[in-house]
Amino acid sequence: MSAVRRGLESVIPALRRFARALARDGETADDLVQDTLVRALRAEHLFHGGDLRSWLFTILLNLDRNRRRGLARRPVLAVIEDVDPAGEPGTDGSGRDIARGLALLPSEQRELLLLVTLEGLSYREAAEVQGVPIGTVMSRLSRARSTLRGHLEGKRPQLRQVK
Amino acid sequence: MSNHDARVTEDELHAYVDGALPADRLAAVEALLAADPEAASRVAAWRAQAAAIRARYGPVADEPVPERLSIERIALRASGHWRKLIRAAVIGFAIGGAAGWFGHEYSNFGRNEQIARAIADAAIEAHRLYINEVRHPIEVRADEAHLLPWLSRRVGSTVRAPDLTAEGLKLMGGRLLTGPRSPTALIMYEGAAGERVTITCTRAAREGSTAFYWQAAGEVGALAWVEGGLAFVVAGPAQRERLDRVARRVYEAYEVAARDRN
């Protein structure tokens, strides 16, 4: 196996994690990863060093944008405010909250927040992946975090009171 | 150093949360957070968000990677080999003047022949790919009890692994492949000299059977046939007689089982 292929293989778990957070649905997420790997292997000869992980995230995001564009052309009934089952605190309940909160963000903010918090990319790497200047990354991050906070705390206004 | 005194910006609060703050600004940020409850609660909320995101999606990276995302398998798909080979085989067959190919109303006979030829090319390709795989020639080892039940379930018909000890072949295990019509099982055997023989098996039309087709591509040879709703390919080193014997044993293993059922 070539060095690039071994590299690809080692990034797969992170790609799956990132795709799952983006697409929410596990099958859709793995489809995205699969298409990303197919693209990457086809373009393997075009990859001359650089950061493999960033390159793969870039491909995955482009595919995800195409996917969502395709979805947008079809009428879709999207349940945005599905009600949380009551009495489910802890990981499950709050997990559902964070998923819903992320879904409410504009896609470029969601992508960025996930690249930074989930995948641990530096601001510079995230800027390269998204193809925007670092100033845009900072303002997107700021808006994403403030919207998400409003969403999470709007639901449970008393809960996160700092002493 | 004036760095300690400069006003803390919002960007720096983000960098603080993301562990990207230069060390010489740490003291200034922490001083601000101690003095400004609003900033402190913002930072706490951002941290909680990041923690929730990681708690929710982090474990995905620890899940086993599904087989369809294996690099070898995707490399095969990326090269487009399977589809190209199947198309070539189907066209070759049509030019060969087989009855019933023209129009859509082809008979099971014609369809089974197409399947046999298409799967033979694809099976030789898979055979070549996986016999040279040192670490992962197979997905499930022979000593794992679920090998055959699993392959049977995915293929949609009972998959067998006949005893080929008489041919000097020991069962290694198997894996699942994509196929021309439906999932395909690949079962691998190894001989004393390290040579490998594979049996590929996938669903074909329910009715009808075909003759044995011999196909040699370089050092690899294959025998393909359709019988009892399944298409088979036996591939290995291009020694016609030995593969003939292996094919016959495979044929008999299925034949005997079919007779026992009736």
Describe the structure.
The complex is a heterodimer of chains A (163) and B (262). With 163 residues, chain A is mainly alpha-helical. Chain A folds into two domains: 1-78, Orthogonal Bundle (Rna Polymerase Sigma Factor, Chain: A); 83-163, Arc Repressor Mutant, subunit A, CATH 1.10.10. Helix content of chain A is 72%, strand content 0%. The longest helix of chain A has 22 residues, at 52-73. Chain A is globular, with a radius of gyration of 17 Å. Chain B is of the alpha+beta class and 262 residues long. Chain B contains eight helices and seven strands. Chain B has a seven-stranded antiparallel sheet, sandwiched between helices. In chain B, a hairpin with a 4-residue loop joins strand 3 (184-191) and strand 4. Chain B starts with 9 loop residues before the first helix and ends with a helix. Classes of the chains: A mainly alpha (163), B alpha+beta (262). The A-B interface holds A 1, 5, 8-9, 12-14, 16-18, 20-21, 30, 33-34, 37-38, 41-42, 91, 94-95, 97-99, 101-102, 113-114, 116-118, 122-123, 138, 141-142, 145, 148-149, 152-153, 160, 162 and B 10-11, 14-15, 18, 20, 37, 40-42, 44-46, 48-50, 52-58, 60-63, 65-66, 68-69, 71, 74-75, 77-78.
Most residues in contact, chain pair and counts: A-B, 44 and 36 residues
Oligomer: heterodimer
Helical segment count of chain A = 7
Reported by name, the CATH topology of the largest domain in chain B is Phosphorylase Kinase, domain 1
User: What do we call the CATH topology of the largest domain in chain A?
Assistant: Arc Repressor Mutant, subunit A
Number of strands of chain B: 7
**Structural class based on helices, strands and sheet pairing of chain B:** alpha+beta
Shape of chain A: globular
Bulk shape of chain B: elongated
How much of the sequence lies in strands of chain B comes to 15-25%
Largest sheet entry of chain A: none
On the 0 to 100 scale, the average pLDDT of chain A is: 80
Q: What is the terminal separation of chain B in angstroms?
A: 91 Å
CATH architecture of the largest domain in chain A: Orthogonal Bundle
User: How much is the average pLDDT of chain B?
Assistant: 81
